[in-house]
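Batch manifest line 348
LIGAND: heme C
JOB: complex structure
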Amino acid sequence: MAYLQWALFLLALMSCSSAPELYTTTAGAQNARAEPDSRPRRLEPLGEKQLQLLEHPERITGLLDDGAIAEDEIPNPHWQKNGCIACHATAEPVQPIKLREADPNRLCTNCHEQELVEAFIHPVGMAPPDDFMARMPDDFKNSLQEGDVSCITCHDLTIQCTQERFPERKINPLFFRGGPYQTRTKLCYNCHDPKMYERYNPHDQITDEGELITKQCFYCHNTYPDRHKVRSIDDVSFNLAEDLKKLCTGCHPWRPHPGGAWAGSKRGEGPDHLVVPPEKIRANMERLAERQHIILPLEPGTGRIFCATCHNPHERGVQYKPEADKGADGYKRLRRGAREICRNCHDL
Ligand code: HEC
Ligand code: HEC
Ligand code: HEC
Ligand code: HEC
Ligand code: HEC
Ligand code: HEC
Ligand code: HEC
Ligand code: HEC
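JOB STATUS: finished
ARTIFACT:
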């Protein structure tokens, strides 16, 4: 990524910038990377060829350039009990440990070259200014290399080194130092000042004087919805042609669902709710929504449940239709209570 693109990307991550074009161009990429569940749940054990490659990680980029190996043949040494040799001088490291390279960034760039893996989320090699240092927890400070930020400042390799900690892959797949974090920005605030990056809030749609802030609508809609005419979701249009969860996931992560554990699921995990409801559930949804005077809209085109099926993204008063106004500004913006809403679909 060019520097400018990189900076824009990071700023969008941090502030969820209000510029819609910025938002739509980064949202996809951001999701592909951020969603831990897009990674394979199980790691394949390293094969013979991969173990051989790990003996000389410094040759990997050369082999790639020569076409001797393909990108997907770069061995993944993380969370592997026999992957240690990729970074350590010995196959079975003991204290005091000896790394292959004195400069940890060079350990990583054997495999993570900018062109190979889109890895350079953040620059390295700069010294945190004083106010950053004052904010930083000790283990961030101790991980600086000659005073500079390096790859291992944010990625704590010891998490993926220690077999007893391998199960943490489920909750902290990118082995963030001090992680897991509920949102990425919490990682950023170990160093950056949160006040500098107050989140832009697209749910703020009416001024204190009670006037509609029409420019806010364009954050999600591509034409201004005429509230007198619109009867349902089918009469409005969006900035995204498909996968409407992306209207939200740039600012709110979906996995783990920010609502936390679901009844009957382990902490942080949960059923995949973003699916086409089976006939029985659909019938429940329609019957109960009508009785309770709420709406439970499905994603146009696909008929899937999406974020706005359960959450109302609008400010109270934006919707003229009372059913569509329910949940706006209520508890977690839910169209019904956090427990009650389950029964709109499930026979509990
Ligand atoms: C991708 C690179 C990488 C891999 C793979 C890796 N390590 Fe490490 N390991 C490191 C780095 C870098 C450090 C130093 C971290 C630091 O100084 O903060 C480290 C530190 C350690 C430490 C010291 C931990 C501590 O608390 O001080 C041990 C022990 C260790 N590794 C063992 C292993 C074992 C065993 C494996 C294989 C199962 C392994 N490592 C795989 C990069 C790696
Ligand atoms: C021997 C090659 C190799 C080395 C050395 C290496 N990595 Fe990786 N790393 C990989 C591969 C392959 C993947 C998987 C990429 C993918 O799935 O797209 C990966 C994935 C990752 C991920 C994402 C985790 C995941 O499960 O997808 C992080 C974060 C990461 N590496 C950081 C580092 C850091 C920091 C270092 C240096 C201390 C390092 N890596 C050294 C090959 C390597
Ligand atoms: C300031 C913190 C920070 C530093 C320094 C940093 N990273 Fe990361 N890294 C992140 C964050 C945050 C993400 C997740 C980005 C996302 O969710 O889109 C990430 C993601 C990654 C991934 C996974 C990308 C993917 O597609 O799954 C890799 C690989 C990685 N970093 C490698 C590195 C390497 C190599 C370095 C050093 C050159 C480095 N990182 C330095 C914060 C950092
Ligand atoms: C370990 C500390 C650390 C962490 C964690 C960290 N940064 Fe930074 N970041 C820095 C330093 C140091 C600079 C250079 C700042 C300077 O020299 O003024 C920087 C610069 C930046 C810049 C360039 C613009 C600027 O403010 O100078 C952006 C954008 C940025 N970081 C975003 C992020 C994001 C997004 C995250 C979380 C994913 C993050 N940072 C996490 C240390 C950190
Ligand atoms: C954060 C994204 C977002 C913003 C900002 C937003 N909307 Fe929406 N809007 C949606 C979604 C998603 C739906 C479909 C779900 C629904 O019907 O409520 C929708 C549906 C609607 C509907 C149809 C409601 C129904 O089902 O009858 C109207 C009318 C509407 N929006 C008006 C507005 C107006 C006016 C604004 C600006 C003040 C606005 N929206 C801002 C995301 C947004
Ligand atoms: C640009 C960033 C941004 C986008 C995009 C966004 N939100 Fe939000 N959201 C916020 C902020 C900031 C808050 C906290 C302020 C508030 O509650 O009004 C919030 C609050 C919420 C809450 C309440 C959280 C709580 O703890 O009470 C829910 C639920 C929510 N948003 C759902 C959505 C849905 C659904 C969408 C997509 C249709 C969406 N958001 C799009 C920034 C965003
Ligand atoms: C099937 C219904 C359902 C769907 C679909 C759903 N949520 Fe939720 N969400 C909930 C419930 C219920 C809670 C409240 C949990 C609690 O606090 O008890 C919640 C909580 C939240 C919160 C509040 C976070 C906090 O800190 O408490 C946010 C933000 C949120 N959801 C965003 C989303 C986004 C983004 C999507 C789509 C990617 C989504 N939700 C899809 C039901 C749903
Ligand atoms: C809008 C409808 C809807 C709402 C609201 C809803 N669910 Fe679901 N839920 C579904 C659908 C659809 C599935 C997919 C399973 C299926 O196909 O039967 C599902 C699956 C599940 C599963 C996986 C088990 C199974 O039957 O496959 C659990 C557990 C679950 N939901 C719990 C909850 C809880 C707890 C709540 C309230 C916080 C809730 N659901 C709210 C529609 C909903």
